[in-house]
Amino acid sequence: MSAEPDTASGAYDAPHLARNRANFAALTPLHFLARAAAVYPDKTAVIHHGRHYPYREFDARCRRFADALRRRGVRAGDTVAVLAPNVPALLEAHYAVPMAGAVLNALNYRLDARSIAFILRHGGARLLIADREFAALVHDALREYGRDMPLVEIADGDTGPALGGTAYEDFLREGDPQAEWSPPADEWAAIALNYTSGTTGNPKGVVYHHRGAALNALGNAVTFGLDRHSVYLWTLPMFHCNGWTYTWAVTAVAGTHVCLRRVEPAAIFAAIAEHRVTHLCGAPIVLNMLVHAPESAKRRFDHIVGAATGGAAPPSSVIAAMERLGFRVTHLYGLTESYGPATVCAWQQEWGDLPLAERAGKMARQGVQYPTLDRQRVADPATLEDVPPDGATIGELMLRSNTLMQGYLKNPAATEEAFAGGWFHTGDLAVMHADGYVEIKDRAKDIIISGGENISSIEIEEVLYRHPAVMEAAVVARLDATWGETPCAFVTLKSDVGAVSEADIITFCRANLAHYKAPRHVIFGPLPKTSTGKIQKYALREQAKGTQ
Ligand code: ADP
Known about the structure:
Blueprint: H1 30-39, E1 44-48, E2 51-54, H2 55-71, E3 79-83, H3 88-99, E4 103-106, H4 113-123, E5 125-131, H5 135-145, E6 151-154, E7 166-167, H6 168-173, E8 190-195, E9 205-209, H7 210-224, E10 231-233, H8 241-244, H9 246-252, E11 256-258, H10 265-275, E12 279-282, H11 284-291, E13 305-309, H12 316-325, E14 327-335, E15 340-344, H13 356-363, E16 368-369, E17 375-379, E18 395-400, E19 407-408, H14 412-418, E20 424-432, E21 438-443, E22 448-450, E23 453-455, H15 457-464, E24 470-480, E25 484-493, H16 502-512, E26 521-524, H17 537-546
Parallel strand pairs: 1-11, 3-4, 3-5, 5-6, 6-7, 10-11, 10-12, 12-13, 13-14, 25-26
Antiparallel strand pairs: 1-2, 8-9, 9-19, 14-15, 15-16, 17-18, 18-20, 20-21, 22-23, 24-25
């Protein structure tokens, strides 16, 4: 007689099935480097100014760096700040600082001295590693901070005066290239501290853990199609969400990092042609800069270059123009709090048959969740009820994921508010389409409310970018006695166009939009931008106020 099946529940809860040291390890992106160095020791890891070095050396430099930090007294849970453009030292810091158990605080070098001083104090950095290019900013920030701190300086050619600290290469020599390091005991340990731009008030310090960094990096590799043949050009600042976690993603596949001090079209095209770059990321403004680069800066290349864009909505005309230049555009969406990209406008085969403009329109949507994101939804922020998937009803985009920050450093109130109801509130207003793709209409603070109707500034910008004379455009609310607010457009014209008037632009918008959405005012001139390529709408709102 055969034995009865054991139907007792709880068999899977048995103690021998619990995690142990063999079957469970803390997730961390640090292993990516160790693996790449073990498997491909001679493969080029980093290219900078014509200098190439392989994974063996990349790994050894990071071990030295981590060991030097330890010898200088940096301990687990300390913060190490870096103020640098996209040079190897900043990339190396992404491994070395957490290898020493510390937390990397990559600083935005476009901030003013006051903000840098605020961040150094708030983040409690033990050591500052700074590029000589920012010597004046460092001096001013430290004066403002009122404290001296140990300084390591990056001399990368003739970029600026000495800062009086230890030269980075000498600092590396303080460490042992074979020094052992341990992964974090807990994957929840902090790996990075990234400050939001703080357009209103002081910036908030977003804390990342090893687990989220590893997962988001792998999500990137899968989503953007990175592999060991990938050559990744650093057009996105590494200080911005740790380069959207590509600092770790490229190493995960043992691809090649091509560093770039300055985001200039000629240097970008030259790097693409010379190093056969396969992938790069940038805000839509960076893509637009490539599209409008002078012919003398453009270089032909005979391979397809993947360009991932996000950080702001890419107008479909920019996507279309990039495709004509030989790029394949991937549209990503995310925030500092979500380790950069959290959603992707995943490509559907049948879009390939659509005319370019229509295809670009589909791709301008923010899309669906990353494979590493648990869930995204568009819901009423008060009731947490989903909006209908009708492409019209506006709600707030909310996320739930292992790839969300731990919280804001020393700010429990803001953390609680961001995670209210068990969802991360992005502050972005969006609609859900019938195909499950999300489309962002505006940041909550950017939406224009005119005569009680919501008007999406992104929708108007989308039309403005289609005007043949327009190079860049942004729309903000302008106070209006009758309507509450009306749209005010700021436009930069292409250099090779004749006279275009305010009336021309308004007429064009009225022909392509519901009339109440057309801007009432148009102001011509350059647009103020942040270092991450976002147009500073708060500055434009002030300017719009000034015209009243
Ligand atoms: P900051 O707050 O300094 O601008 P973030 O990188 O955190 O820095 O900005 C995140 C915001 O950028 C999002 O909340 C959203 O408003 C905007 N954003 C990011 N990606 C996109 C995108 N693909 N389309 C539209 N808006 C985007």
